[in-house]
Structure formats: C-alpha cells, structure tokens
Amino acid sequence: MHSGGVTRQPETFGFLLVASFSSMAFFSAVEPLRVANRLSGQPLFSWKIFSETGEPVQASNGMRVLVDDALTLETCPPTLIVCAGFEPAKAETPRLLSILRRASRTGVMLGAIDTGAHLLAKAGLLDGATITLHWEAAPAFREEFPDIKVSEELFEVRERVFTCAGGTAALDLMLDMIGRKHGAELAGAISEQFIHDRIRGSGDHQRMQLSNRLGVTNSKVLKVVELMERNLEQPMPLASLAARAGVTLRQMERLFEDQISVSPGRYYRTLRLAQARQLLRNTDMTVLDVAIATGFASGSSLSRRYREHFGAPPSGDRLEVN
Fold first, then answer.
1. Domain annotation covers residue 5
2. What global pTM score does this model have?
3. Contact (CB, 8 A) for 92 and 122
4. Ranges of the chain whose pLDDT falls below 70
5. Do 141 and 217 fall into the same domain?
C-alpha cells in the first residue's frame, strides 16, 4: 500500500466525451486515477463524465458510454479533458465552444486527448500554445490552424492547458500528472499495475523509430525517407534526395528496390497520397487545396494519381467517410 499522507479532498477531473471519441485514450486516462485511489488508500481523485447534452456518447469502436451529466458552466469541474477521435469537427456546436471559452475565463484547467485539441482551437483557446494531438490528425490540424505550433511529443503541459496524442499516451500523461502531485513512487506503482514497464515522458515521440516502422536498417534509405516525410508539400527532386543521403541516384534506386521493394519515386508519391487522404477525410479543404498541400501540380493531377492508388476519386473518398 502506498500511502499519500494526509487525507485531503479529492481532485476532480471531468471528461467531456464527443461522438466517435477514442475509448482507448479515455480509459487510459481514467484508470490511473482509479488505481491511484486504491494504492494510496484514500480518494486522491474523483471524476465525472460529461457530454454536451447529457445523452450517452458512442465511441469510435461502437461502444456507447453513459455520462453523469450535461456539460454546463455550473457542472464543469476544475479540470476538464476533451476526449475526441476521428471526427472532432462534428462536435463544434456554438453552445459547446461557448462553454469551453467561459470555463477557461473562470480558471478551469482545460485538457485535450487525441483530437480534442481541435475543439479547443476552434474555441480560440490555444493561441500561442504548443500542442500535440494524434500524429495522423496533425497534418489536417496544421492546415486549419497554421498559427498553432504542433509538436510530435506524447503530451504537452502548459500553465492553463494540456494536450495529449491519445491512445496509450493518455496513460503516460496521467502518470506524469500523478507523479508531480503525489510522488514518483505512486506513479511507478500505478504503472506496474498496468504492466507498463516505463513511464514515457513528454519528450518521447509518438511514432516508433523509422527503422522499426519500415523494417529497414540501411542508414541511406532511412535518411531519404526521413527527408521525404519532411517535404511532402514541396517534394524534393530525387537527385537532391540522393545527394543529401550521400549516394548517387542509381544507388538510391537500387537500395530502395532491395530494402523496400519499390522505387523511390513511387514510395514518395505514396506518402503524398496518404497525406492527401488524411486531409480529405479530416478537413473541408478543396481538392485543389489538398493537391497544393501535398505537392501535386493540379487538382486533376492529384485526382488521377488518387484514383490509381486508392481505386476511387478524392471526392468519392470524402463522401464515403462523411
């Protein structure tokens, strides 16, 4: 048993669930609070679950979760965490954005998990902040909110706002917060309860190392792919990529065929098309704007390549998702 010392009033967290929220991220944030109470032998934390209307909310996996109350300024606890998922824009009601703004003005600490940062940004509450959100949603967020700095870290904690990439990163965020308030020993004990062998810090990046993602160890190939991923809007010429990696164009082509079984040009185009798909699915950008953002010369050029790769035109993919 890990005693927290003097008994105190529990710190209350509120979780605002919006349609298609990530259940993994939500439960990864709630469960550390429950275990903290159990291991400390006292109620360090309490929590309430909200939706905008007080009705149950369906997660992205189809699970429907009952909530405790509708979110109002009067029901809002001292810390409120917005839990979102695939379609945060669908929760953008004037009423909800107004409540978030008013809550912030009254001193409520606001947090966001997964794509919850989208709602805080729409409410105008992230100006000047460095935030993070799920890596898959980051390109669309950057296009919509170009003045907000987006990091690739697991979580970002500022004075009045914190954001988290979602998934199991929500566990690391809560362990970090618990450790700061109640000690590293308790945080470590909670981590062990979840068979989580290391509490990742805010400086850890979301995605696994490039070599692990690709199953490739060749440093030249990894250098080229890293450059490709950083230059999707303005694609670098293949000869320039090869020169930056210290190989000839022919050597680079042989390495890609040997290590990834695809040509450098085709691999680069696949990265840009994947980016285009994310923008189409997560923003209301026009096909032309998406084409420009992913390095295609025109909307028709993107559409042709998109149909070849995905088997459907960009407009059809957008309609299917929405």
1. no
2. 0.79
3. yes
4. 1-7, 208, 318-322
5. no
